[in-house]
Amino acid sequence: MSPIVLMITGMIVLLIGVGKPSPERARIVTTVAWLGSLGAGMVAAFNLGIGTLLPSVLGESTLSFGGGMINDSLGAVFNIVLAVSAFLSVIMSDRFLAERRLPAGEFFALMLFSASGGMIMAQAFDLVNIFVGLEVLSVALYILSGFTRRDVRSEEAAVKYFLLGAFTSAFLLFGSALVYGAAGITMKAGGTALLAETPSYTNLSTIALALSSSNNAAFPLATNPMFVTGAVLIICGLCFKASIVPFHSYAPDVYEGAPVPVTAFMSAAAKAGAFAAFLRFYLVLLDGGQNAGPYRTLLWGLAAATILVGNILAVRQTTIKRMLAYSSIAHAGYLLVGLLAMAPANGKISGSEVWELAQTSVGYYLLVYTFMNLGAFAVLAWLGRDRGREYTQVSDLAGLAKRQPVAAGVMAVFLLSLAGIPPAAGFFGKLYLFLAAINAGYVGLAALGLLASVIGAVYYLNVIVSMFFRDGENGFSSANARGGAMWAAIIAAVATLLLGLIPLPNITPKLQQKIAPPKNAKPKPSIRPGT
Amino acid sequence: METVTVNSLLSSYIPVLVMGLVAVGVSAALVFLSFVLGPRRPSPQKDAPYECGMTPIGSARERFPIKFYLVAMLFIIFDIETVFLYPWAATYRGSAGNGMMLFNLAEMATFIVILFVGYIYVWKRGAFEWE
After folding, report:
1. Could you give the number of structural domains in chain A?
2. Which of chain A's termini has less CB crowding within 10 Å, N or C?
3. How close, in Å, is residue A291 to chain B by CA atoms?
4. Is A66 on the interface with B (CB under 8 A)?
5. What per-residue confidence (pLDDT) applies to A526?
6. In a domain, A524, yes or no
7. ipTM
């Protein structure tokens, strides 16, 4: 439902915005756009079930559209993340658009279409629908990143993003074709009929069935070179969107060149869509049992490389947006740790505890990341253009606490949260992720993540030090500009602080158990429930 | 039970490969033979790019108005609408039998409404005006 709400709102916004440009029209368009994204978020929250914050995906799930879409709490969590990122990006862009005389209708319509594409990915249960969602998400983002047409950097960002994005979309599509073929051959060789409710070899439940069914001993799918190639190509395509390390190199350039609200939006939305699809596809791969081992090794390497490269390269950045881009790469690595933690490191069949903890922590971390990362960009949009100059360099922020104390304070909240320092939600997000990793037996990876977080603290704290303890004679005024971006930043800051204090129903009890285990507690034997 | 293996799947493409090789071989041989055996009597008329029509003036790589691209793109979009409408119209009568008539009508109505929104948008943005 949520993607449909956003699609319709996007069309309404497009139609209202197409008339003669005027400030009133821009205001109406903005209001409709944020109301629409709020509505989509409400629908997703309703689907999730009121009162059960972030339950695991093990709850009720229903298939629709011929088995191609799934309606479950995992999809609902990702839909909320996407609705939040659309909402915050919409309200932070009003002054940005007005200053540059950009058409608000098209901008918001593209943003809402893009978010709905991410929602389609989050609920897709078929490789074809994953691809359609990815394209709806990406094509709108290519245009958005080149939206300030007169700006050379923005153009460069759009072209780079488009060319590389088109390549990796082709990877994903080719991978899907190979998986489709391999699954079809296996099913036919085993004499297994297609399920009535999911009548396609691209359907994830069909692929899972083909991977796990015992009657295909003559032609096992999991070791089929065609299937393995396809699966790796699909992983490549999704890694690009999530900016995982070997495919990350576009991110700093695109993030730097794209308009600030667009950078904010894509840093959260593209990752949310890609991770949702990645999660579902990885769950399918796990049905290969013992043969899923190589994927585990692959993801282990990707996660380690992403965390290290993101954090180490961010230290050397002098531009704020590039720094945040590398930091978002590092955060994608942390999310990958959570994804990996869904199955135990020793390859044994996982208990539902491992499973639930990992998925809840990924959902929670993504939500927290959305608030803190979008918040940091919202502060940039809030500071905006000042006497013809923009805040671009880290050194431009020097002495901000004296000029604009509120903005500096809010920015400090986000940076502390990104660094993972206790009062903010970022700390709890990391805590749950690494807890899930240790629970699943990935102690080495968790240790690596912790060490890299220490490196990460260097560049986040560097900005805070420069904002509060250095004088900046860089000609920026102390006029506190008002506008939607201020509200976006404040809402995100409040959410960042509050989210850390909310206990999660299926994490907090386990956390207590870890820290102070109750006496006479016996480990319960549990089996992994089916998808 | 049907037995399928990757080898049998790939070996069914061997005729395609053979045909490709034959096609490349034959055309290469013909070009080479006419190059070796053909008589050559060049004249200015023969060297001209076109034997009839206007004498070419300047390069063909000229700048021309971007409006042509716009018209071409809009044409493709609305052309595809027609392409989708035809098969739908052809199969629509058949859907009466299985009670999907209203559903199919609603599906196509959704598609048309989405395209119509796009139509209003390009119209209001002045994409149809040549000025």
Report:
1. 1
2. N
3. 19
4. no
5. 40
6. no
7. 0.75
